[in-house]
Specification:
It holds the Pfam family GntR. GO terms for molecular function: DNA binding; DNA-binding transcription factor activity. InterPro entries: Bact_HTH_transcr_reg, Chorismate_lyase_/UTRA_dom_sf, Tscrpt_reg_HTH_GntR, UTRA, WH-like_DNA-bd_sf, WH_DNA-bd_sf. With about 230 residues, this protein is of the alpha+beta class. The chain has 2 domains: about 5-65, Arc Repressor Mutant, subunit A; about 75-230, Chorismate lyase-like (Chorismate lyase). About 25% of the residues lie in helices and about 35% in strands. It contains 7 helices and 10 strands. The strands form 3 sheets. It has a 6-stranded antiparallel sheet with strand order 4-5-6-9-8-7. A hairpin with a 3-residue loop joins strand 1 and strand 2 (about 65). Helix 2 (about 30-35) packs across helix 3. The radius of gyration is 19 Å and the shape is globular. The two termini are about 25 Å apart.
Length: about 230
């Protein structure tokens, strides 16, 4: 995790832990620069990231202010740091259905920019939010970028593991959403009747270098999944 990303995380945590209301004024750019002992450009990059995420808004000449906090239990479509980053500590847990090394088919290879037949880790998990099934997730990680994943790692935040163990700088993602009906297998694992509606998400997550390291296919439980997007006009 880069220094500016650590600052983003700490400011977000401070806002949520202190339940700051919309319009609360935060410390100035100069104060934050001194507190974190970094350059103004690093703080500016952190603040720009927070603004794009909808956590703050900046008014030239007036200061930095908190935006309305997200509602509890909602998945942000702008946060690409995994499920654990969306919810308070302990709200999510994982039932790991499968972890294995396999080879990339054409679909996986195209999305991860690797050769067909290249080795990948396949991780299949059920994600729970407050003990209710939120979604089923199927993820592929290229072995050339992610050297090792096992069941113990998959039972926690994989992104946090990659940032900690391999110092990976997770940066941005492409997200695609489609609404369709669940097939029998999907309905069974989510405890829903066949042909129930489902929100399907495909996501490719990239490192700061532009290298894709995660291609995921997620199907959400329509009764338990709620989403939000906070936007800004640039």
């Amino acid at each position: 995790m880069n220094k500016y990303q650590q600052i983003v995380y700490e400011i977000e945590q401070y806002i949520h832990e202190h339940n700051l209301e919309q319009g609360t004024k935060l410390d100035s750019l100069d104060t934050l620069t001194q507190r974190y002992n970094v350059s103004r450009s690093t703080i500016s990059k952190a603040l720009d990231t927070l603004e794009k995420r909808g956590a703050i808004f900046q008014q030239r000449g007036s200061g930095i202010f908190v935006r309305r906090q997200r509602r509890e239990g909602y998945v942000s479509l702008l946060v690409n740091r995994g499920f654990s980053a969306n919810f308070k500590d302990g709200a999510t847990h994982y039932d790991v259905l499968k972890v294995e090394q396999t080879v990339a088919d054409e679909d996986v290879a195209n999305n991860l920019h690797i050769e067909v037949g290249a080795p990948v880790y396949l991780v299949e998990r059920l994600v729970y939010l407050d003990d209710e099934k939120l979604c089923k997730e199927l993820s592929y990680f290229p072995v050339s970028v992610v050297p090792y994943v096992n069941k113990e790692i998959a039972e926690q935040s994989i992104f946090h593991y990659l940032e900690t163990a391999y110092k990976m700088n997770i940066s941005f993602a492409d997200v695609y959403l489609v609404i369709d009906q669940l097939n029998d297998a999907e309905a069974d694992v989510l405890d829903l009747p066949p042909l129930s509606p489902g929100l399907y998400m495909e996501q490719v997550v990239y490192l700061a270098t532009g290298i894709p390291f995660d291609y995921s296919k997620v199907v959400y439980h329509y009764k338990h999944a709620k989403f939000f997007v906070q936007s800004v006009n640039n």
